[in-house]
Amino acid sequence: MALPAPQGRRSSTFTRLLRHGFTDPSAAGTLLDAPELAPVRDDSVLLEALGGTCDPDLALRGLARLVEALDPAERQELLTTVATAKPLRDRLLGVLGASEALGDHLARHPGEWRSLVTYESVDLHPTTPEFEQALADGIWDGPGADRPRADALRVAYRRCLLGIAARDVCGTIDVAETAAELADLATATVRAALEIAYEEQPGDAAQVRLAVIGMGKCGGRELNYVSDVDVIYVAEPREGAEEARALQAATRLASRMMRLCSDSTIEGTIWPVDANLRPEGRNGPLVRTLTSHLAYYQRWAKTWEFQALLKARPMAGDLALGQSYVDALAPMVWDVAERENFVADVRQMRRRVVANIPVAQVDRELKLGPGGLRDVEFAVQLLQLVHGRTDATLRSATTLDALAALASGGYVGRQDAAALDAAYRFLRTLEHRIQLFRLRRTHLMPEDESELRRLARSLGLRTEPVESLRREWKWHAREVRRLHEKLFYRPLLDAVAHLEVGEARLSAKAAGHRLEALGYADPIAALRHLEALASGVTRKAAIQRTLLPVLLGWFADSADPDAGLLNFRKVSDALGKTPWYLRLLRDEGAAAENLARVLSAGRLAPDLLLRAPEAVALLGAADGLQPRSRAALEQEVLAAVGRADGAEAAVAAARGVRRRELFRTAAADVIGALGTESSPAETDHGHAVDAVGSAVSDVNAATLAGALRAAVRAQWGDTLPTRFTVIGMGRFGGHELSYGSDADVLFVHEPREGADEQDAAKAAHAVANEMRRLLQLPSTDPPLPIDADLRPEGKSGPLVRSLASYAAYYRRWALVWEAQALLRAEPVAGDAELGERFVELIDPLRYPAEGLGEDAVREIRRLKARMESERLPRGADPTTHAKLGRGGLSDVEWTVQLMQLRHGWELPGLRTTRTRDALAAAHAAGLLGTDEARTLDEAWVLAARVRNAVMLVRGRPGDTFPADGRELAAVGRYLGYEEGHVGDMVDDYRRTTRRARAVMEELFYGG
């Protein structure tokens, strides 16, 4: 009976194991005390070697399982070799500490440890022929010959994989060489699987020449430990064979080859063979002839399919046929950058990949997440496709080789390329080590602390390994994101700045190609702007060279990159000598991005900014884009008017404030800064529309207040002989103005006590006309047209009436449409008390006691029907006209206003000038259902957004989608649609408004 070890010895062993990096020294001590490991129990060299692995506990467990699986004689040989031969010790323990899956393989096939003993030079860098020989020996010779072919293939594959993993974890090969060896092993494996298929189906093999084209990472010789092997099949009938029968035979052979690799047997699986990159994907035939492939790529292939062909290489089967395939398609690959929508397609692919990542995994994604491997690969491939058509040195299928070639040719800055190379190698190493552990396909950083510790130690991070790993990973991901932005644009600046003598740089032609590929319609003009901004040795030019690579990327992501760059040059020319301008853009990260988005989003915001470029400071201030209150605006405007010399100068100052505030609102709208934490602009579009409407209404009200003060002061000083107020009507009174709306108003006055009524009326008319004149004076500032046509008797009636005159008119002559118009009446400027009395006067008219009579309801319906038939502009599409079209603003507003007229007298919530508030109150009161209210609200918000978008993009009002392609794309961007989806935008608009029209007809005409 064995006696327990003395306590002192156990304590000493426990401490020693802790010191060597074991996290469970008790379990490790138990394993070392087992009889099988007795010969090496106290071997300090073995303990040092175990402690040098990335997971000493795992390595010891794997060694114990391996030793236990061997017979006594072979066990002794292994332990002796491990104790005396450092190469085997390092290789074997390194693999056992890094890969639980390969430990399982060794426990199942213990004799495989001998494959790690040899250390000849040929074993250090085997290529496809060596792997082919090793697989053939394992399948057709020795013990493998007695196994089923699929099992023998798996065992032989694992034996080769064991050698690659050993070279990898011991540092004999770097990550690029590891990836190349894995791809070469995959090539040999596919060839062996195809040979087995030929052996099983000789009749099929005799009918057809079959070539397997390696694609993706396998084609580029940069494979992972566990990855789909992407392939495409091409076949030709052998002489005398019928094509249809030959293709059927090829399909059977290809299918069998795929199953040999991907089926699970008693020896597990290898990896899936994926043929989905073939023409038509899963819907297309598995195998095609070369002629069929060419016909598809010439007529139907999409941009991403040509991008995928960058990696194509003959891999197995008939290599001559495979090379013919590659040679025939290569010219199409290198012409793809000239296709329409090339860059938009590539960018859309990248966005779609990121969008499909589950939200919970985005921050853990090494491959597809922001700053991940795919960012590097996409960037390199895009540059290859743009410049590879004229420079054959760039046509490498391997990412790092292509990156080096891009740097050598001046297409990418050398320092940027070196930094990107280092980041890519780090991320690929992480990916390899994560997959190696269990030989499972994953690109996610683990969350378990023990797994992170093993991963960190595998990278040589031994001090605070987990924290060090997280820090390095985040740093490299940030580097990839940073360099990704610079990669396309820095060489463009080097091409025009000509600063470093002898440095390889883009030619003007290559720079033009790149700008075209990035979406610039006029690359010659764009290069001219870049040269003007970035040339020279001044501090200003140096800062511009720092800013422009990022800005150019933001411009390129917009619907009109050319306009963005041109506008940036104009702003920079205007403010270039102002010390704070470039400092703001350089030091305030948000300011530069905000400016880029504003300058490339359309005409309105840039035009407003260029009239007063100093407003760019708003883009950097913490609250610079938040709309200001009406009271604050009115106070500022009246102060500016008070300081001005003369009425015209006073109104010019007021219009200057309005211009700045319109820019503030437009910029915030474009950037998406009009939301709140509870109602973000990206999702709560109604809140953003309300914010724009309120902001524009408030600044217009303040401007009218300034114009009123200026008109009165010019002729009468501080006191007018009559009290005077301005009533906002329509969208103005409803706080729903869009950027290009007129200001609908009524002018109301009341003679002061003792004043002559005729003199008071003349004064009131003079003030109203002077306000209109002052606000219509030619100016660089946007106009503010005043429309008083909603007054009693319309254009035929007096421009201004006294309160008593309004009362008399409404008492005797008011029509139902006037009561409807007054639903949105609200005082906006002038004498507040008189404004309140006007509201008291009209309330009984707009909210009639007991509601509208049936005759009045019929009249409103008749007026609406007449308006639909007469007021829609000739040639306008009624399905897309935002104001008067089907389910547009008018349909929703008339529906809501009819409910206000009928029920406002009894439901206080309906007594509001705002459409959406009234609609919500009607729903709360049960006047319409939840679905109906939601449908009307969605349509109204969407139509309002379309009108705002058209004004932002075109710089002039419009109620329909633009006909120009770029303008339509820009409207789509504002509404949240990606490139190439403007058709979806119009379809969605029609669908939304069609539903709203159905609700309107039920409630307005049928209710």
Structure description:
Helix content is 62%, strand content 5%. With 1007 residues, it is mostly helical. The strands form two sheets. Strands 1, 2, 3, 4 and 5 form a five-stranded mixed sheet that branches. Strands 6, 7, 8, 9 and 10 form a five-stranded mixed sheet that branches. The longest helix is centred in the middle third of the chain and has 33 residues, at 465-497. It is elongated, with a radius of gyration of 38 Å.
Jot down its keywords.
1007 residues; mainly alpha; five-stranded mixed β-sheet; 10 strands; 5% strand; elongated; disordered N terminus
Brief write-up:
The chain is 62% helix and 5% strand.
Arithmetic mean pLDDT: 90
Tell how many strands the DSSP assignment holds. 10
Largest sheet: 5 strands, mixed
Low-confidence stretches: 1-9
Q: Distance between the terminal alpha carbons, to the nearest Å?
A: 98 Å
Judging from the principal axes of the Cα atoms, what is the shape?
elongated
Number of helices: 44
Share of helix among residues? 55-70%
Layout: helices, strands, pairs:
Layout: H1 7-19, H2 25-32, H3 44-51, H4 56-69, H5 72-84, H6 86-98, H7 100-108, H8 121-124, H9 128-140, H10 149-169, H11 175-200, H12 202-207, E1 208-214, H13 216-219, E2 229-237, H14 243-262, E3 273-274, E4 287-288, H15 290-299, H16 303-308, E5 313-317, H17 319-335, H18 342-355, H19 373-387, H20 399-408, H21 414-438, H22 449-458, H23 465-497, H24 508-517, H25 523-534, H26 539-556, H27 561-575, H28 579-587, H29 589-599, H30 604-611, H31 630-643, H32 647-671, H33 685-716, E6 722-728, H34 730-733, E7 743-751, H35 757-775, E8 786-787, E9 800-802, H36 803-812, H37 816-821, E10 826-830, H38 832-846, H39 854-870, H40 889-903, H41 915-924, H42 930-954, H43 965-974, H44 982-1005
Parallel strand pairs: 2-3, 2-4, 7-8, 7-9
Antiparallel strand pairs: 1-2, 1-5, 6-7, 6-10
Helix pairs in contact: 1-2, 2-4, 4-6, 4-7, 5-6, 6-10, 9-10, 9-11, 10-11, 11-14, 15-17, 19-20, 19-23, 20-21, 21-23, 22-23, 23-24, 23-25, 23-26, 24-25, 25-27, 26-27, 26-28, 26-29, 27-29, 28-29, 29-32, 30-32, 31-32, 31-33, 32-33, 33-35, 40-41, 40-44, 41-42, 42-43, 42-44
